[in-house]
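Researcher: Let's do a round of design. I'm pasting the structure tokens now; please hold your answer until I've finished.
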């Protein structure tokens, strides 16, 4: 493999869930936020925003929503959101009624674009943080209570939470989590047909064994389940109550269009 400092930073990425009780200085915060702004933005709509959470009470609420106490201890905590509210206000200045059918930024195509842009910005910030010697963990768990997040962060119409990001100086050194063989995840020209010669699961047994040898710091006394077992467990979990359409509709989005 070719390598440089950026590649090494990315290859050594790991989720950090325990941080030193040290504040992040203002220059570093400015750097991270500016890097996030330089991520790709579909059609230059700039249709995301991020809430920097400094109030301990609000951090505690995010930890409550995520069922993870360490969220409240993060020296730097962000929630990235889809933001068509700002664009709605801009469009309104140009004579377009955001509540009319003429305002198309509330429909599913733009919603997906904005979600992608928010994730790209978050990833840029995360990578920059790691390059500066900081540690991060991405927080999908806050979406356990989307209405709670919306209410706590006072998210207006045409906004929607995407992910959280906790950042701080690492106070732990977890092992690198195994990654599946490239041939299971990268294909050429087309998705391979299932069959003896091209089966994407050919290397699964070896990957299962490798994952089973990995120890997560959250359960350091036992190896993690094999990848196949994790997939089987998650595929059987009922998440039918974690719906998107109704909660997005409450924020003004029309995802059936």
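Researcher: That's everything. Go ahead.
Model: Designed sequence:
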């Amino acid at each position: 493999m070719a390598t440089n400092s950026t590649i090494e930073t990315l290859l050594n990425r790991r989720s950090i869930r325990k941080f030193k009780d040290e504040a992040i200085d203002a220059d570093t915060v400015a750097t991270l936020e500016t890097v996030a702004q330089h991520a790709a933005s579909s059609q230059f709509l700039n249709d995301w925003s991020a809430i920097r959470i400094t109030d301990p009470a609000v951090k505690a609420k995010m930890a409550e929503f995520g069922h993870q106490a360490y969220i409240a201890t993060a020296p730097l905590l962000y929630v990235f959101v889809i933001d068509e509210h700002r664009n709605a206000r801009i469009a309104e200045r140009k004579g377009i009624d955001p509540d009319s059918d003429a305002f198309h930024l509330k429909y599913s195509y733009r919603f997906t674009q904005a979600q992608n842009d928010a994730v790209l910005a978050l990833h840029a910030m995360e990578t920059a943080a790691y390059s500066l010697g900081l540690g991060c963990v991405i927080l999908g768990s806050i979406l356990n209570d989307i209405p709670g997040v919306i209410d706590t962060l006072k998210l207006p119409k045409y906004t929607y939470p995407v992910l959280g990001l906790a950042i701080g100086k690492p106070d732990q050194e977890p092992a690198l989590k195994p990654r599946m063989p490239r041939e299971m995840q990268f294909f050429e020209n087309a998705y391979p047909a299932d069959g003896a010669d091209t089966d994407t699961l050919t290397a699964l047994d070896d990957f299962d064994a490798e994952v089973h040898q990995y120890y997560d710091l959250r359960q350091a006394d036992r190896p993690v389940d094999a990848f196949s077992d994790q997939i089987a467990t998650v595929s059987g979990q009922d998440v039918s109550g974690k719906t998107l359409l109704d909660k997005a509709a409450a924020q003004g989005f029309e995802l059936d269009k």
